[in-house]
Amino acid sequence: MTVSRRSALALAAGLPLSLLALKPAVAKGPMMRYTMTAFTNSSESDLYVYESTDATNFQLLRGPAYRPPSGLLRDPCLFRHVDGVYYLTYTTAWEGQTIGFARSTNRVDWQHMYDFPVQVDGLNVTSSWAPEWLVDAQGRVNVIVSLSDGCRFTPHLMTATDPSLRSWTRLTPLAGLGPVPGYVTPADRPTCDRFGYGYIDTTIVHHDGVYFAFTKNETSKLIELAIAPAPLGPYLFVETGDWAGWGAPREGQCVIPLPNGGWRIFFDDYDENNPRYFYSDSADLRTWTPPTELPGLSGTVRHFTVIPEIA
Q1: How confident is the model at residue 28 (pLDDT cuts 50, 70, 90)?
Q2: Enclosing H/E stretch for 10
Q3: Fewer CB atoms inside 10 Å of the end CB: C or N, the chain?
Q4: Could you report the per-residue pLDDT of 273-310, keeping only the tens digit for each?
Q5: DSSP strand E in 136-262: where?
């Protein structure tokens, strides 16, 4: 009888050969639940809620789940507060000076809270788009919203001053993502073209003491990356152009952590003739896999956010 080297070593150690047939235990990570909040190609006034266990294959949880008393529900962004309640913020109109807020204890039954006016001293706000939650390293709850003066979008930040999320600080532009020196509120299209159309859909994640801002360059329609030591900046662009190979036009980006320590970005290809949704993965927030079309919902959902939770 020929005995393998592995068997011989086991016998020498006094171990029964039957143990060799046992497979080593594989450590399993926590069971995850991913909740997506979106509007759809068929309605920009209704919230649709989806759920997944792998951040890839999403099933409808409820849709429509919520319609505000008035206005639109575009770009719905979700997070879960320390009180265990889910909060939503969203775009209320193509043009206007408010963003909306709603709350839910179970992700499917929603209550309108209020529409918040986003006036800024010295800025004639014509549009208030794509509000995004940011919980910073100190646990403060912030909202980033893209404000337009009729030409250029600039991301602004406001911070909650009470646990119920009904009182906020004044809006402050993110340093490094604002207008270049010499820019003034334009009176004509050539002036807009000269200085560019700014940045929208800014979403920020905090990792290893750095704030990573993934923001859509509204001139090139590409998602670019800027980093900063604090939520308000100053931000420095470290990746511009088509640095990640995602192409254009892209918008509606959402970045989430994955259980393996990596990251996933979702983004909207908003080609009117063939709208699609993609995702891409990274181990370091700088190098990304080629984009993969999101199964099942691509072409249906628009500008969504996803939050991961332990199930």
Answers
A1: low
A2: helix 5-12
A3: N
A4: 889 999 999 999 999 999 999 999 999 999 999 999 99
A5: 141-148, 153-159, 172-173, 199-207, 210-217, 222-228, 236-239, 251-257
Please give the Cα distance from 186 to 4 (Å, whole number).
Answer: 80
pTM of the model: 0.89
The tokens describing 189, both together, are 């299209």
CB neighbours (10 Å) of residue 166? Answer: 12
Closest-CA residue to 200 (of 174, 180, 182): 174
CB 288 within 8 A of CB 282: yes
- What 3-state class would DSSP assign to 114? strand
**DSSP H helical ranges for 249-290:** none
Sheet holding 141-148, edge to edge: 127-135, 141-148, 153-159, 172-173
Reading the block at residue 283, the tokens are 């181990």
Query: How does pLDDT run across 143-156, given as a tens digit for each residue?
Result: 999 999 999 999 99
Structural contact between residues 45 and 68, judged by C-beta atoms closer than 8 angstroms: yes
Grouping H, G, I as helix, E, B as strand and the rest as coil, residue 25 is coil
Q: Number of C-alpha atoms within 13 angstroms, CB side, residue 51?
A: 11
